[in-house]
Structures
1.
Amino acid sequence: MSDTEPSDAELLSRVAAQDRRAIGPLYTRYQPRLYRFLYRMVKDGGMAEELVNEVFLDVWRGAGRFEGRSSPSSWMFSIAHNKAVSALRKRREKPLDEEEATEIADPAELQDDVVQHGDMRRLMKGCLDRLSPEHREVIELTYYQELSVREIAEIVDAPENTVKTRMFHARRRLREMLEADASRDGMQ
Amino acid sequence: MNRTTALEDRRELEALLPWYLNGTLSARERVAVESWLAEDEEARRLLDAMREEQEVTAAANAEIRVPDAQAGLAALMAGIDAEEAAPLRVSERPAPPARACSRGSRAGCPRPACGSPPASPAC
């Protein structure tokens, strides 16, 4: 960001004053990150696109209530987190979906991947997709969005120790799934 | 820190490792993790595994085609326009109107908010 570009906080304060010209730069800055996050959560492009706009509608309506206790970025991601949780709840995606997804994973596709790419990374990507939403979320926010423990705690509204523990279990689950898939496909 | 690092400390350091990788630890935490990495091969193996997980996560995100921002922004502004042009929602009205809605004013029936269904078919 150059010196001439307004900070997130400045833009948000202008949005709070209902300055329509401030919403554009904020949207352009955050839409790709929020879209990717929401896409990884709900696994549906159309729904992710709708949810991004719902997030920004909430930002427009609620910027006046933003008190600066967290960063503007964490605040917007926390709105996105809530939208994703509601959308998944409506779709009745339960924590157990991980096991269900494992059952419906297409072994032929996995086998094809192994043959074509010959590496564990394709398998790992499939395992990431099949993690529970809670585990997938902490991995995305840490590895891809590169947020701190404190920021993630603010976003998911949980204590920092819970975030660390959740990440630990998410990684362990990922490795268990990867091992099972690799073993099934004769890679180990 | 040496090989006698308490199990509890190792767990705490392992828990911090993903955030060492994404560069968001405090200076104190970073120093503690770095000295653990310097002396413990298992810690370095763990970090390598996390680095691979991070790369796969990045690759999964790179495959996502982000929709055109200008089109999304136009849709958002249209949504804001529509919302502002629409009458305030019931919950946003400053005070209930003095007059009752004609529907629901029958004796013995609760008075519904305008636009909401009656409490019972009889009302």
2.
Amino acid sequence: MKAMVQRLHLTHPGHFVGGLILWSIWFIAIYGGLSVACAVMPPDPGQGAFTHINITLLVGSLITALLLAGLAWGCFQEARQHKGRKHFNAFVSAWLYVFSTLAVAFVAAPMVGLPPCL
Amino acid sequence: MSTIDREATGPEDLQKLHDDLSEVWGNPKGLKALTIVNHTTLGLRFMVTGMAFFLIGGILAMLIRTQIATPDQNFMTPEIYSQVTTMHGTVMMFLFAIPILEGLAIYMIPKMIGARDLVCPRLTALGYWCYLFGGIILSFSMVLEMAPDSGWFMYTPLSSSEYSPGLGSDFWLLGITFVEISALSAGVELVVSILRTRTQGMALHKMPLFAWYILAMALMIVVGFPPLILGSILLELERAVGMPFFDIAGGGDPVLWQHLFWLFGHPEVYIIFLPAAGIVATIIPVFAGRPIVGYGWVVFAITVMGFISFGLWVHHMFTVGIPQLAQAFFSAASMLVAIPTGIQIFAWLATLWLGKPKMKLPMLWIIGFLVIFVCGGLTGVMLALVPFNWQVHDTHFVVAHMHYVLVGGMLFPLMAGIYYWLPLFSGRMPSETIGKWGFWLVFIGFNVTFLIMHWTGLLGMPRRVYTYDTGFGWDIFNLISSIGGFVMSAGFAMVLIDIALHFRYGKPAKTNPWNADTLEWANQLPPSPYNFVSLPPIETRHPLWEHPELPREMQEGRHGLATASHGRRELWGTDPLTGKVREIIHVPSNSWWPLFAAMALAVVCISLLLRWYPVAGVGVVIAIGFLLRWSWENGAHPKAAPDAKVMPGDPPLHSRTMDGPGLWAMTTAMIANGSFFLSYLFGWFYLWTVSPEWRMPDASPLSLVALVVAGIALLGGSALMESSVRRLRKQLDKGLAMRLYGAALLGGLQFVLILWVMWNANLAVTETSHDAILMVGLYYALLHSALGAVISLLQGMRVGYRYVGAHAPFEPVVVAYFWRYNVVVFWILIAALAVLPRVIGG
């Protein structure tokens, strides 16, 4: 348990992969969710982009991006408080969380303009 | 720690120390050389074999260029041309690029991180033999004129038995799966070696960048290869038995193959690129004479690449009819990968800008890499744009882009690395003059071939057509490309001549000839089988720049583990984060078992190819027997480490702790296993939701009650394993054997129950993909239950021999981990295969 708690600390290098694992889960969820939703209940193509599918995916994306941004902020705070190995770990993790946040926003952007199932 | 002040002792003692180490680590000669497990020898074997396959792949490329140099050629028949193009791609990707880079990593990593060997040396040997035998089997298909001819990505239905009725596709599927055992073996042990055997003090942030790159590559192999292994198994089952996974009429879907292939295939590009980039990041600072700019940013970029590259696979499938929005996701993700690539390139350029670069031979190849790879990256961004991708799909433009990325991104850095580390391999320096001729011929030849090929592609020439009419306007471009191809070949011939000649005529290299900063140059040139007489503490990323005397101190045995009189092969086992020493890892020595196991697997491979199933069955049993016998010689076995004596002040042997490298190897192997399992689940749900002719029966054929009872037996076995481990932590081993036998019994019960479910389900595996994929899932669970039962049984027997107990508690920890994995996976399987269909139906 103690080891598990240590791994959650923002200076642990496990956070090198934390943001990108969240990004990967989100990516699989939106691709898989889109595919299943289009197979099960495709919306009328005339509706354009603002369908229940796109809105659901956008809300999920927003929540993911906020979570990642919060973790990035936390890592930056930790990086300031440490030197050496812990600073390195927190600093690299912080930028990886920033990248993951931007990657969510960038990949999700087409949801605003493209209909889901065409 | 056993830091010995060797200055206080005489030269005779030092000589004795070298003799002791040579006795323990030395390589046998003659036939017994086949038993060698040492990373230096095996790394070289990997690289030499990879080079041999490179020559084969190169000759195939020249045949292709000869055939299409001019229109309406009859140099090759269409059938042979298809075999040659397929084998060119297959040999270059699977038998050259990945193995040679793995070989380099196997050779270099222990030396760079201050270790004496990789953590699982016998696994290295097994990997090499599987690679060699798999490569020979695959290549032999060309001699028989039966080579695969469906393209290196073997798309179904072209590769299925209806359209490829011969043995070609079977050669590919079985041969590649065999070779992939090698890749996975190397992946697992490189991960564990980098994380757990760095020399003392080498914390993560002090690790050489090459080790970061190889760590990412190895993890990507572990996660990326299993989808293709699954795909290959499914396609071979379809071809051999008729299980219709990719046949629409039977409820399958050919696009599933594309998903499984590219789930592997796109990360593979980065699996090839990352170690090559590691070479670049190692060489540039040395020749610029300063540390790399932005070490942390490069680590950031490596990590991003390792992940994002798994989110791009669908960009190879933009023309198969995926919704526009989904295409946009993959298009955006494909563009994102330009960010980490750009960061690395700017870090390398900034290092050159701020340093004083010396333009030696390795740097010439690095400059060639920068030019060609940046061009390939730019056409990659073009291909990420869906409309452009549609226009040039399956044309020579894509072939040209791929070669710019792979030859620029892998072959040029590899050549730089070979020239850079040549003095380490041989103790001699290469010829600058012949080397420069070789470089310029390759560089000019490459660009003449492939720059022109972009235009051929933009003019509409499709790939893999064996000839063309003269009226399309492609004639002159093809002729120029072919001339360029032969110029490039002449360049590689020059390089090979240079390398061959240098072994005899090269000037002897002085110590650390390039004034490098990393530990591999603290070796003797060429290195001894044990690498270092003693293992130093490290406090910096640039040990040889900041402590130029370190190589001499290490050779004089002034640092850790400077003893071998106990007869064990020892490394430091360090904390993965801080590099603090935790235990002494003792690794196994030379053995016939890896060769024998690989030979048995080769018999299995050939028997499956020839449809001699009884022989294949016998081969499997023999291979398992060899592997289990191999595993028997471990821990406290007399051939491993019968006593636990260490030098005063040294930490314990890993087999006497609860956290040795075996546990890390098991964890990493289970990541690969988990990737295989997730790929299987993906296949199940994909066919269920997408396949147009999927037929879900009204009632599930699987007995839920029997599966749940099997799951409870599994939970019981796992609980017994966990309680054994808990008691061992408290130094209690009373009743240990009974607990282990109990777990084996419960594993056996689970096995019987799964067998009963399979028997009673009456699955029509050749009629519907539903039944076929259920059967594969049940076999997966069956194999795992059998393995759990057998290894628990063996553990119980080892307690009887006193190889396991409170004095040597390590092995049950590893076995318990396997049981834990089994529990999680089996219950997910029950939910996916037996519960969900009952809940939501077809």
